[in-house]
Specification:
CATH architecture of the largest domain: 3-Layer(aba) Sandwich
CATH topology of the largest domain: Rossmann fold
Shape: elongated
Strand order of the largest sheet: 3-4-5
Largest sheet: 3 strands, parallel
Number of strands: 5
CATH class of the largest domain: Alpha Beta
Strand content: 5-15%
């Protein structure tokens, strides 16, 4: 889901907006200052300790809230996200063509559930698998989600080469489907956070690589012809 169906940067911006709004209500800090600080650090590569740095920067804020509260605000906010350009049209085309689709998405359950609901993924995909339902140990590259799709769709081992997994993250997305005999495709767009990342091994590389949604769509539709 993240950076394949919708851009992760949009979710981050949405979450930081909610955090900044909360901070300006809970303390004497200015909303825009908080938002600008968070976004600048994100642009500079800060990920896991964004809110720790925020409370260090704004000491008065640390008197009125905590990292745990800010994380909760971020993860439970109502996200303002949309499909990446061209994605909704592709999903509609595939749906109209009778193609079965599913989603496998990692990440904190509250965040992923909110994103899936806002995007309306159940209108296109069955199942929508949020791996954190089972716990972090079942996040990709664990095979459990892929096994569930095969089971739900009644896919025998000799039929797995007719399944296609599409993702963006070479660190975890393609290892399991490759090992299970699926086809794998990487959608590589400049707006993605991991646009320049490469797999650590050949086994983790996608079998196909596309630099635009239109190229991916053409490839998928050719397979249906």
């Amino acid at each position: 889901m993240d950076d394949t169906l919708a851009f992760e940067r949009d979710y981050v911006r949405s979450g930081f907006t909610s955090v900044a709004n909360y901070c300006s209500e809970a303390s004497t800090v200015y909303r825009q200052e908080v938002f600008n600080f968070l976004m600048k650090n994100f642009a500079d590569g800060v990920r896991s300790n964004a809110f720790n740095l925020l409370l260090e920067k704004f000491s008065v804020l640390a008197q009125d809230t905590s990292v745990e509260v800010l994380v909760d605000v971020y993860r439970t906010h109502q996200p303002q996200v949309n499909f990446a350009p061209g994605i909704e049209e592709l999903l509609n085309t595939l749906k109209d063509s009778g193609v079965r689709m599913a989603v496998i998405s990692d990440g904190p359950l509250a965040s992923q559930s909110a994103k899936a609901e806002v995007l309306g993924l159940v209108d296109f995909c069955d199942p929508v698998i949020l791996t954190d339902h089972w716990g972090r140990e079942f996040w990709k590259p664990h095979h459990r989600a892929f096994e569930k799709i095969e089971s739900k769709w009644g896919i025998a081992e000799k039929q797995r080469d007719g399944l296609v997994y599409i993702g963006d993250n070479p660190a975890k997305d393609f290892l399991a489907p490759n090992q299970r005999g699926w086809q794998s495709a990487r959608l590589r767009l400049g707006e993605q956070l991991r646009f320049l990342d490469e797999a650590e091994s050949a086994e983790g590389e996608a079998k196909f690589d596309f630099s635009s949604v239109s190229d991916l769509a053409s490839w998928l539709l050719d397979k249906l012809a």
